[in-house]
Amino acid sequence: MSKYIIRKLLMLPVVLLAVSFIIFMILRFIPGDPARLMAGQQATQQDVEMMRTKLGLDENIFIQYADFLQNALQGDLGNSMRSSKPVISEIKSRFPNTMALALSSYTIAVSIGIVSGVLAAVFQYSLFDQAVMFMAILGASTANFWLALIAMNFFSVKLGILPLMGSGSWQHLILPSLSLAFYPTALIARMSRSSMLEIIRQDYIRTAKAKGLGAVIVYCKHALRNACIPIITVVGLHFGVLFGGAVVTETVFNWPGIGRLLIDSVRYRDYPLIQGTVLLTVVMVVLVNFLVDIIIVKIDPRIRLD
Questions:
Q1: Which DSSP category does 85 fall into?
Q2: Is domain 95-256 given the CATH code 3.30.310.50 in the classification?
């Protein structure tokens, strides 16, 4: 177990280094000149060149990356081109809002998805099973931004029971969380159902039933533990989808999080801020996947031998 964890930990810096390099290079090929944007449309070419020198954009691209990497290892992601504030402070002010949105959506998706999927498998072909599968297909085929607009129109404009946009109270979190959780809930429910159906048809489950064990013990203790490995994998991988989906959701609901910060930084070609927000998202996804790998190994010790 310890060797497995050490091996995974040694891979983390390599993954983060590769991702940071890819992000850095891709941003340099985004159309538009950040020096021109910062200097203003009325600025002369000399002013633009002075701004480019000030931002360090006139140096070789690999030198720029080396400087960025050296500073990042010291906890310095640079200053925002637009606000001149440290990128770290910009992210810190928005990060709690995004985490609140992601965790609330994650909780909704995991709890409803797993419970409904397991029950649908246990009561296969029942009316409940058909309802769960219908909602799963609907959730997988519904665009996140469209659902958000429909929810805003119904609950805020027509009924007036929930805030339309912004933040400030827990009520502001309800609509964004439900909108963001709809798709992953559908995916987790389908995976939970298919995984449970495969397990409950195994011989050892029939044997457990033949011994007279109760349904709760058979399905929760014997079946669910073996069925949860693919479920946990999907749950872990979907954390990145929630973070990515938060960009659209935060923009629609005017939620002051990392997603809106990323959209604003892209609009102004704010390289340091884009790099910081994307790198943070990648780090979160990599860490969650690392934890998922450890949990799976704890559940199924046979994976350690592989």
A1: S
A2: no
How remote is the C-alpha of 215 from its chain's centroid? Answer: 35
How far from 43 is each of 31, 40, 50, 52, 68, CA to CA, in Å? Answer: 19, 5, 11, 12, 28
How does pLDDT run across 39-59, given as a tens digit for each residue? 666 777 777 778 777 767 777
- Roughly how many angstroms between the first and final C-alpha of the chain, as a whole number? 11
> Over the stretch 11-32, which tens digit does the pLDDT of each residue have?
878 888 888 888 888 877 776 6
**55-85: b or e for each residue (b if 16 or more CB lie within 10 Å)?**
bebeeeeeebeeebeeebeeeebbbbbbeee
Contacts of 239 (CB under 8 A, 6+ apart): 102, 106, 284, 285, 288
The SS3 call for residue 79 is strand
DSSP strands (E only) in 43-116: none
At residue 80, φ and ψ (nearest 5 deg) are -65, 135
What pTM did the predictor assign? 0.77
d(CA 228, CA 114): 9
Number of Cβ atoms within 10 Å of the Cβ of 171? 11
- Residue with structure tokens 């609950």? 155
The residue extents of the domains of the chain are 2-73, 95-256
| AA letter at 258 | I
**Helix 2-27 crosses helix 61-73 at what angle (to 10 degrees)?**
140
DSSP state of 86: B
